[in-house]
Amino acid sequence: MSDRLQKLYHPIIRQHNAAPINFEKREGREVVTANNSICGDKFEFFVSCDKERLGTISFYGIGCAVSKASSSILVKLLEGKSLKEAIGICENFINYLEEKDKAVSAISEDFEAFSAIWEFPQRFDCAALPWQEIRTFLRVVEAR
Amino acid sequence: MTGLESIRAQFPIFDRHRDLIYLDNAATTQKPQAVIDRLAEFYSSENANIHRGLYDLSSRATANFEEVRLKVANLIGAEDPLSIAFTKGTTDSINLIAQGYLKRKLGKGDKVVISAMEHHSNLIPWQQLCKARGAELAVIPVSSKGELILDGLEEIFEGSTKLLAITHVSNTLGTINPIQSIVKAAHLRNIPVLLDAAQSVGHLPFKVSDLDADFVAFSAHKMFGPMGVGVLYSDPNYTADIEPGNFGGGIVRDVTFEDTQLLEFPQVVEAGTVDVAGVLGLGAAIDFINELDLNDSHQYEKRLAEYFRDGSKEIEGLRIIGEAQDRSGIVSFSVDGVHPHDVATFLAEKNIAVRAGHHCAQPLLHAMGVQATVRISFSIYNSEDEVEKVLKELHHLVKFWK
To answer: Where is pLDDT greater, at A72 or B259?
Structure first.
């Protein structure tokens, strides 16, 4: 087991992969799809929100450990946040993955669990896609 | 040198990457030095455009190019080299038949039949054509073992079926389909058959006269040749019925502003300057294949796959996807609780190249009840030792994820 792999499959990632937060379909919510057409992975997010604030979020679907953990952490960090805050967190995380702003890891130790993505560029989408899709959705809600 | 060593020695990639265990041969095979050299040789000392050149270089390039047509015909057991057209690959060949042959013949209420095992490239061209023409796309279903269910074939063909498009070997499960009997059933109803032979030509003995398919599509790069070159074989009875997908130079007899008289197949579908070097590279790949015994190659690739299948039984939670009776050197599997991408990343750390995902066969995986698999596909340069290394890593992986 290489150090690189140990780092990629950080304990936080493994924990969220094994026991993801709110991993269930919910009726009557807005549905946001994170679909990676390259690998066929697909998660659906079931979001309740108004123009100001996010309520609950759940998600369901199939994906690798990295994408599942990333989605679970998204739920953990964004539930109950204002749209503005939530968009900011999405941006921070995407910037962190893109190595634009490594210092933002201070915001959440959960971010740091994904630092190995810098060494595994093939896995960037696994971590980033759910956040990119939710960010797009939140911007649409904001503009409604 | 053993047989295996002398084969490996012909592939420079294994010299440049000493630790590489390359098990993604269904995506593309590695290239022997002779193929690589052939491309360089053409551009270094033979480069000229083919056809109509009155100087020596051009006529020699033309002759060499046409000689490959003959080599391809011999390889697949086609009597007439003029039944062989060069394309950009399997996808291009299939689209050519969809647009240049079937489009005119397909109308409302007609049917195109495919199997549940098709690569997207032998599915989408027909699906989109059927949608545009108001025709129906009918699908031969697949069993949980990964074999085509042929009991209902008569019913599926019923009505106005204009074409059967089917794969010889599944790129995902390794299933070898009983093409002869399927073609026979189609021909009883005068239905022409297109065979996707991307995973079979160059891997196992292939005789178009035995299989009796009317159109055959395959790619050079999956049989040790260069990328970007493929073949479309057409039964001579159908060649006059194939219209070009592209119009341009090289396919005409006479042109005025009012009209154009086109050449015949195969030239008529080879408009513009084709990849001459690539075609010559395909010729070199065929020379390489002719040095092998394709029955031995097939048995060898299959034996490695069986060795993996057997060894994988010891691995907790590993499930082989596809247990067809007749199968090739391609194996798909899943590991309980570990996504295929995570398996592939694990193996990649040990320089083991496999493919994870849907293998461009999403509907098939859906029918098999999985979203994605890990796929291992063997070639003649792989070894039992490599299989053992993969199995060892999979043991480690299962332990780690437990």
So the answer is: A72
Chain B positions touching A9 (Cβ under 8 A) are 342, 400
DSSP-assigned letter for residue B144: T
Kindly report the nearest CA distance between residue B174 and chain A, in angstroms. Answer: 20
The answer to whether residue B360 is catalytic is yes
User: pTM surpassing 0.90?
Assistant: yes
Q: Is B110 helix (H, G, I), strand (E, B) or coil?
A: strand
Residue where the block lists tokens 């590695």 = B30
Instruction: Kindly name the residue from B360, B367, B370, B391 that is annotated as catalytic.
Output: B360
Using CB atoms, which residue from A2, A5, A64 is nearest to B341?
A64
Instruction: Give the distance from residue B150's alpha carbon to the nearest chain A alpha carbon, in angstroms.
Output: 29
Q: How many residues does chain B have?
A: 402
Amino acid at A71: S
Percent of chain B at pLDDT > 70 equals 100
| C-alpha to C-alpha distance for B164 and B147, rounded to whole angstroms | 17
Residue A113 pLDDT: 92
> For residue B71, is pLDDT > 90?
yes
Q: Are A114 and A13 in contact, with CB atoms under 8 Å apart?
A: yes
| Omega of the bond leading into B266 within 30 degrees of 0 (cis) | yes
Q: Do A5 and B346 touch (CB under 8 A)?
A: yes
Task: For residue A126, give the nearest of B341, B346, B349 by CB distance.
Answer: B341
Q: How far is B357 from chain A (nearest CA, A)?
A: 5
Q: Do A40 and B356 touch (CB under 8 A)?
A: no
Q: Please name the residue of chain A whose CA is at the shortest distance from the CA of residue B340.
A: A64
Structure tokens belonging to residue B188: 């009883």
Three-state secondary-structure class, residue B326? coil
Spatial separation of the C-alpha atoms in residues A99 and B307, rounded to whole Å: 43
Per-residue model confidence as pLDDT tens digits over A8-37? 999 999 999 999 999 999 999 999 999 887
pLDDT recorded at residue A104 = 58
Closest residue in A to B394 (Cα–Cα): A1
Rounded CA gap, B133 and B199, in Å?
Answer: 30
CB–CB contacts below 8 A, A to B: 47
What span, in angstroms and rounded, lies between the C-alpha atoms of A43 and A47?
A: 13
ipTM value, please give it.
Answer: 0.84
Of the candidates B345, B362, B365, which has its C-beta nearest A123's C-beta?
A: B345
Distance CA B80, CA B150 (A): 32
DSSP 3-state of B188: helix
Q: Tell me which residue of B226, B265, B243, B302 sits closest to B78, measured CA to CA.
A: B265
